[in-house]
Amino acid sequence: MTSTTSTMMDVPLTIDLIVDRAERWMGDGEVVSRRPDKRLTRTTYRAVVERARRLARALIGAGIARGDRVATLMWNHSEHLEAYFGIPLAGAVTHTLNLRLHPDEIAYVASDAGDRIVIVDDVLVPLLDKVIAAGGRFERVIVVGNPGDHEPYEAFLAGAPDAALPLLAETDPLATCYTSGTTGKPKGVVYSHRSTLLHTLVAALPDALDLSRGDTLLPVVPMFHVNAWGLPYVAAMTGAKLVFPGPHLDPPSLLDLLAGERVTVAAGVPTIWLGIREAMDAAPDRWKLMPGLRMIVGGSAAPEQLIRDFDRLGMTLLHAWGMTEMSPLGLVSRVPPELADADEATRYRIRARQGVPPPLVDLRIRNEAGDVPRDDKTSGEILCRGPWIAGSYFHGAAPEKWTTDGFFRTGDVARIDQHGFVQLTDRIADLIKSGGEWIASQELENALMGHPAVREAAVIGVPHPKWSERPVALYVLKPGATASADELRAFLAARFPKFWLPDAFEEIDAIPRTSAGKFRKTELRQRYQGHFAPR
Length: 535
Ligand code: ADP
Fold this sequence. Notes:
Layout: H1 16-25, E1 30-34, E2 40-44, H2 45-61, E3 69-73, H3 78-89, E4 93-96, H4 103-113, E5 115-121, H5 125-133, E6 140-144, E7 151-152, H6 153-158, E8 173-178, E9 188-192, H7 193-203, E10 216-219, H8 226-229, H9 231-238, E11 241-244, H10 251-260, E12 265-268, H11 270-282, E13 294-297, H12 304-312, E14 316-322, E15 329-333, H13 344-352, E16 362-367, E17 370-371, E18 380-385, E19 408-416, E20 422-427, E21 432-434, E22 437-439, H14 441-448, E23 454-464, E24 468-477, H15 485-493, E25 504-507, H16 521-528
Parallel strand pairs: 1-11, 3-4, 3-5, 4-8, 5-6, 6-7, 10-11, 10-12, 12-13, 13-14, 24-25
Antiparallel strand pairs: 1-2, 8-9, 14-15, 16-17, 16-18, 18-19, 19-20, 21-22, 23-24
Helix pairs in contact: 1-2, 1-9, 2-3, 4-5, 7-9, 10-11
The structure holds adenosine-5'-diphosphate (ADP).
């Protein structure tokens, strides 16, 4: 007997499947960009794809070969979308440089990635000059907008030769992003066509981010941060209208854009939504938003209070968790049908968790004893495996981040409840070790941010002569609110063991943040390291 083989076509899962479809079937879909002077420009998927193909041919004409890296230093706008498609269509790899990093760091990652050409916004040329002064080397600098002494992007496109675009393989690299380097040097993650296509398909699913052609999507999350969480690809795949904020990320500008373009889905880190909530509370009648506006929030934990506050304003926060190494989607939290009729407190508790993994992500929580039970108590590290999860870093850096059985070690600590909902409790690097016991700083922060007077709170471990480390809570109050240290300690005492309660509560003006809007705890630890030193 002969063995059976599949009779199906072996079509490579490459990004041109999305790009061609956007042009041919979603061509009139709108792409709106806010410019530095606040003007709005409008174009279509048809025009974006046509220009992306021209960019691809121009890059080939400029000698860019398969697998070469081409950098972008840009805000979110339609030319950045052209680069997202055009660079991979040339067979090259898009390296989105993070403009919030120090010029030395940008120069480091550009050289680590071996970027040959950079496409840069005119308003960011002064930053690029600093990157170059810090040792960044690019063969060509191509400027979108007013070129000054550099080569104009429009002329680069206009000069595109009649080159054929390469046939792509699904395992070809498509884009690279660097981790923020909170621990050690930034490390490169290189996404493939296949990983990106599969991530795009799953991200759009109703139980994941739930995006479709009828949506208008505003990615506040920068396109230089994990490919704006993959949302530009999802928008092009579904044909959803895209609205880009350019450099204007202050709450009133974002609210004007959300209301003016009738946005249905927006995505950003918790700080963005905190600012939006405050602006709306300060001027409740100023903005007419789409009823039911959905906001995807991730990057750091979404405080439960924020989810409640937005419900009050008629908007829905959707909490998701991910990482640069995970493209980024790893968990999404939606109330499951069996809890739809549960009491309000339970439903909010579920929504404030990080959630359950989407299809194709194999997620485990493991400690020394093995996979943790679903008791919502035992914690362990989150390990992941899947087609859009990094199997290594560029240049083979940090191989210890993978287990011998092929899982990526996320460095995040979590527990899991009986319904399968994951609750992050800390990053391993932020855990506090006091008298031989572990204290999870994020759990304390999440609870403190539930106090009505607290806007934001960070809890850090500070060296202590007797206990090795003790927690210290740093907090920012809401405008006009007051709360004493005793009151905050009593608030936490109701829900945590005594030894978890911070030894000190200090009000500060602002919590320092990383380029991606996360609390910069290393800086806080430095600032407070002598707090318990014997005098
Ligand atoms: P980096 O790891 O370089 O700081 P990433 O953007 O890849 O940059 O950050 C991933 C990390 O961000 C996760 O490992 C996790 O600690 C944190 N994170 C992301 N989403 C959430 C979330 N919803 N809740 C809590 N932490 C989150």
